[in-house]
Predict the structure.
Amino acid sequence: MRTEVCITVDTEFSIAGAFTFPERYVPLGEEVVRCVVEGREEGLGFILKNLTHYNQKATFFVEALQTSYFGDVPMGRLVNRIAKAGHDVQLHLHPCWLQFANRDWKEARTRPNDSCTGRSDRELDEMIGTGCYAFGRWSVPRPIALRAGGFEIDRAVYRAMTRAGIKVGSNIGMGIYQPQELALRLSSGRHWIEGVLELPVLSYLSPTVKLGKLEWRALTITGTSWPETKLLLMRARQCGISQVVLVTHAFEFIKSRDYRFEALRRNRLNQSRFCRLLDFLRHHEDEFVAVTFREASEKWLNSAPAPDFSLRVPLGSAFRRIAENVTSDHLPI
Ligand SMILES: [Zn+2]
């Protein structure tokens, strides 16, 4: 059986300092997803172009609560392009956007809570409902999968998903956020949680610069070098991990001077990592296959759960990645 690789792209707009400096800044929309550099889209356009070129499919987890600030149109345009290119669109939620439902948001002196954890059932039902309505207005199928913003998750979110009929989650990313409940600290596999089938983003253990210490890292384009990604794919296959979930964002493919997305440049290192992954998948079709959540969910839901298995990268490759990332961060282009 081939190892399934789920390329997931969290597609979201940016608060971009508007809560910290409400008089000076407003949130940024399409530009932080399109990421135009010298007239060319190095974010979403780059991703879609290369998925087509290498004939691979991805799942875009699209943030829907930003509609309370932007309305339906800006994200609707992007969703339309993603769906037209044949990719999967699923639901992503960052609750901080609900702050804009309050007309006096500029007066609020407290930073809004962007976590899905610790929410009441009613709040969660409203958030998921708001997201699903937005999908309807964007004319894309109702979501069957959810990813909570920042991977901040607790059991109440899974119960709300079950109530809403959203049967699949990809809410856990140990390298990014470790859930309070130990049973939710999962790094791979397929797990039933409160009636939802959870497929965590693959997290792996890596040595750190502090010798003898290990840290959890999520499988992302920015955070994982290509040799490490390849090694993790091979090890996942050897260990019988049936799905490898990777997460990226359009903004990972550009560099910007600050959070206002000014003076954008291409991120050549991350662009090359993404293309090498797609090229690898194309040339190893007998061992790996890229699948989307929508196309594979029925099969996953009807299969037995798969255990959590922790992968680890060796010291040498972790240090090479640290050096590679530091060099890239300091390159002028
Ligand atoms: Zn997000």
In short: Residues 10, 12, 92, 94, 149 surround zinc ion (CB under 6 Å).
